[in-house]
Design a protein that fits this description.
Elements: E1 3-5, E2 8-11, E3 14-17, H1 21-29, E4 34-39, E5 45-48, H2 50-56, H3 60-66, H4 78-91, E6 100-105, E7 111-123, E8 130-138, H5 150-158, E9 165-171, E10 176-179, H6 181-187, H7 198-202, H8 207-223, E11 227-234, E12 240-251, E13 257-266, H9 268-319, H10 327-354, E14 363-366, H11 367-377, H12 379-385, E15 388-392, E16 396-399, H13 401-417, E17 426-433, H14 436-441, E18 450-456, H15 489-499, E19 503-509, E20 513-521
Parallel strand pairs: 3-7, 15-17
Antiparallel strand pairs: 1-2, 2-3, 4-5, 4-8, 6-7, 7-8, 9-10, 9-13, 11-12, 12-13, 14-16, 17-18, 18-20, 19-20
Helix pairs in contact: 9-10, 11-13, 13-15
């Protein structure tokens, strides 16, 4: 059923204008708040009321003379939001009662937030050309709204449910405190109690915090500064809680304190989780330190008996080599080999424990020079295996040079060790700076420069399922008889990169070999926590 109101004919489909532009003006001029008529095809503003002119400075004369488009009042990113709102009011009657907050630019260049409602209108002639009736109200609050629409406001308010959040006002002259339902819930006090003063409220503060809280409040009353503090309390039902309070001291024109208005929030569970996490981290750090100290001390203590085993085995082999034959010679050779394996393992364990115990400081390190040193150290094995190493443009970074040397040495030695039989190893080393997108994918610090260094070989490679396992201590993919080693070399590389706030990973290249990739920051942060 249709009805006519103030020159309009309305029905459930929307609002239809009776022919004549004067009715367009009538709609915009009527009612409270800022109003405007918007043309749907290009979002041109056709007419505004006096309130619109008062707040934004544009009159109907300006609009007729120069034209005005709503897009010129909005920030560019807000147009998508507007289009979505206008589409919504076309399809949903309820959407017409919901607002969206926009920042509108006035004629004088100032920008401020406004609540904007929209509803469609139609002219009966001109083939049903569409218009929108916009109604706007300035946001008169002193702080920016944390939501942009009715829906986000509801979600925002749901976060402050009555169980864990509440507000209060303390009138100092009368020493009278008013609590919201949320405060009653937190304090576990019956709502029938209304005679609340400072003495009653203070009686719930934990004895260990009473003096500190009173001093904090008194200091705020004296200085007029806002309150932001936490304290423990014992509720009316004898439950221990941790409370976070925010409050503002409000004064009159003479500078006298009238009242304190604020909020409290029960953060007991949150603080419990934080404290538990802190304790777990402390336990883990303590455990790691103990393990490192154990590995270091144990390795040193094992060295002495190992030296004796090696010494006496060598003497037996030298002195009785003509006597020991068959099984005797075999057993002795196995003792000597095992002692050598143990020596290698102990040395690698020592290196592993030293990575995070080093007292060396970070310094400007040229990785080209480091690679040159490594090639010199490995000169014999490189020559014997016929290895070719190609390197391009390695960077200069903040690093511990000895650890960088060990990093390159371990990976290059690995590449030579696991070469294909009959195929001379070829190792290519390339470096480049990570892109912003790559830094984001690796969750690295956006403001720092990171270098990606790839070491690719033509060896036997590995199955991709072992790409993570190979960086674990004592993890081996092949038997000791095939490829000697302790299984700690790559674990040391991983620990070095972690100590340098970088990372390392490996990739198998099918039918080609393996690629080890490590990422290093160009600069180490000065406030880094070791």
């Amino acid at each position: 059923m249709e009805r006519i109101i103030a020159g309009r004919m309305e029905n459930k489909e929307g609002t239809h204008l009776i022919p004549g532009d004067k009715f367009i003006k009538g709609i915009a001029a009527g009612g409270s708040g800022m109003a405007a008529i918007l043309q749907a095809t290009d979002y041109k503003i056709l007419f505004v009321n006096k309130q619109f002119e008062h707040y934004l400075g544009y009159s109907n004369d300006d609009i007729e003379a120069n034209g005005l488009f709503l897009s010129s009042l909005l920030e560019g990113y807000q147009m998508d939001l507007l289009l979505n709102q206008l589409q919504g009011v076309e399809d949903d009657m309820l959407a017409r009662s919901h607002y969206v907050i926009y920042s509108l630019r006035a004629k004088n260049g100032t920008v401020r937030p406004y609540y904007l409602y929209a509803s469609p209108i139609f002219k009966e002639e001109a083939n049903g050309e569409k218009y929108y009736h916009l109604l706007m109200h300035p946001d008169l609050s002193k702080w920016g709204m944390p939501f942009i629409s009715f829906d986000t406001k509801e979600i925002f308010l749901e976060q402050f449910d009555g169980e864990s959040f509440g507000t209060f006002e303390w009138i100092l002259g009368a020493d009278k405190i008013f609590w919201s339902d949320g405060v009653y819930n937190i304090y576990e006090v019956e709502r029938t109690i209304h005679d609340i003063n400072s003495e009653f409220a203070d009686s719930f503060i934990h004895p260990n915090d009473t003096a500190r809280v009173k001093e904090t409040i008194q200091a705020a009353l004296t200085t007029g500064k806002d309150l932001n503090f936490e304290f423990k309390m014992i509720t009316a039902k004898q439950n221990l809680k941790t409370i976070h309070s925010l409050a503002k001291v409000i004064k009159n024109e003479a500078g006298e304190v009238l009242k304190v208005s604020g909020s409290i929030r029960d953060v007991t569970e949150q603080r419990f989780i934080e404290e538990n996490l802190k304790n777990k981290v402390a336990e883990l750090n303590h455990s790691n330190r103990e393990l490192e100290e154990f590995a270091y001390v144990a390795s040193h203590d094992i060295q002495e008996p190992l030296r004796k085993i090696t010494t006496f085995s060598d003497r037996l082999s030298e002195k009785y080599k003509d006597v020991l034959t068959g099984d005797g010679a075999l057993y002795l050779s196995r003792i000597i080999a095992s002692a050598e394996n143990m020596r290698m393992l102990i040395n690698d364990l020592l290196e592993f424990s030293r990575v995070s115990k080093t007292e060396q400081s970070f310094e400007t390190t040229n990785l080209n020079f480091i690679l040159k040193q490594v090639k010199t150290d490995l000169e014999l094995i490189i020559e014997e295996s016929g290895t070719t190493i190609n390197a391009h443009g390695l960077p200069v970074v903040d690093a511990i040079s000895s650890q960088m040397k060990q990093l390159f040495s371990n990976i290059i030695t690995n590449a030579i060790k696991f070469h294909k039989e009959g195929v001379p190893p070829v190792i290519n080393i390339d470096a480049r700076i990570l892109t912003a997108k790559e830094k984001l994918s690796f969750e690295l610090i956006p403001g720092n420069i990171y270098h990606k260094i790839e070491i690719t070989d033509n060896g036997i490679g590995f199955e991709n399922e072992y790409a993570t396992r190979i960086f674990q201590v004592f993890q081996r993919l092949h038997g000791k008889s095939e490829y000697p080693g302790s299984g700690i070399g790559l674990a040391i590389c991983k620990k070095i990169l972690e100590y340098h706030h970088g990372l390392i990973y490996a990739e198998n290249i099918p039918d080609t070999g393996a690629r080890f990739v490590f990422i290093l920051p160009q600069h180490q942060l000065k406030d880094r926590i070791l």
